[in-house]
């Protein structure tokens, strides 16, 4: 699976940002044709993005383009222009406002036709689906099962909060007046369950107060603690924070490695299924938990 600890949003209408993004250490770069691009700039943005994909150096990064959502007049041309122009230099398309399985199936079919028409390997380009409405969340299981191209479910908190009439203007913070619990918990968990059921990654969306790094880190930690794989970043300062938050702490990684080693020894040499590691009783389930932490650490280069 690709690493997506930090997913950098780059507006397709801004050539300066497209240029600058090449030097940034985000795991994923996604070129936007949707909400960060004004209606009159959509056509020009498609061309900028094709050129950036063709000529930029994106080595080691996951290359994604976010097309417009299916309620607009732009989506089909977004897909056709980007994939015909730079399909071989593209890893995934991101579909915003995915509301039912049919939306994802539509994109899958269109991608297959274009791949056949231009001679690209069929099925190589993946899909990331954004869950950002009540309807999308209620249908999230069907969305997650809609195509073998799916690689990730992405929470879109700004659109989501608007769609459910949550009375807040700051994405990620608890809505004013909400004093108990976490207003985001159910949504994040629901998306995570659907993602894991279908072996997809789960990605948290943007934190819009880009100068508030503490706020970003707090929100990122909340998603990372549940098991999310990464988060959007809108500014270079958020990249490093995301890469750190979505990698395990060194001591947790080392602990996981110790559990794996001790348990391997216990089961193969001592032929026991439960043993003590220091003060801790470990068994097969401990091994599975340790595997998760170890795998995240190795993916982060530990
Ligand atoms: C992202 O697309 C969001 O709506 O938060
Ligand atoms: Mg959105």
From TrEMBL:
Cofactor list: Mg(2+)
All copies of domain HpcH/HpaI aldolase/citrate lyase, residue ranges: 5-236
Pfam families, sorted: HpcH_HpaI (PF03328)
A GO molecular-function descriptor: lyase activity
InterPro entries in UniProt: Aldolase/citrate-lyase_domain (IPR005000), Citrate_lyase_beta/mcl1/mcl2 (IPR011206), Pyrv/PenolPyrv_kinase-like_dom (IPR015813), Pyrv_kinase-like_dom_sf (IPR040442)
UniProtKB keywords: Lyase, Magnesium, Metal-binding
Keyword Cell division: no
Record's keyword annotation contains Transit peptide: no
Record-linked PANTHER family: CITRATE LYASE SUBUNIT BETA (PTHR32308:SF10), LYASE BETA SUBUNIT, PUTATIVE (AFU_ORTHOLOGUE AFUA_4G13030)-RELATED (PTHR32308)
The protein's name in its UniProt record: HpcH/HpaI aldolase/citrate lyase family protein
Organism: Sphaerisporangium corydalis
